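User: I'm new to structure prediction. If I give you an amino acid sequence, what do you actually give back? Let's try with this one:
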Amino acid sequence: MPVQLCEEGVVIARKRVARLLRMGPLWVAEIAHVPTEAGCLCPAVLLDVWSRRITGRAMGNSLHTA
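Assistant: Good question. You get back a string of structure tokens that encode the predicted 3D arrangement of the chain. For your 66 residues, that looks like this:
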């Protein structure tokens, strides 16, 4: 798939990716609040950005931590 940026934009994008790779691990967390008839459901997920794999997950009935 060809890149639709000008040559200067491609160089900047490559430098940003290289800088992120030097930073080491990068994780993203997501938590949701889903109301149901039986109460609420709060799933939480921790994602490793580089491997795109779920590295942690949890489920609870509130957004508060233990």
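You can read the tokens as a compact description of the fold. Here is one thing that stands out. Confidence is low (pLDDT under 50) at residues 1-5.
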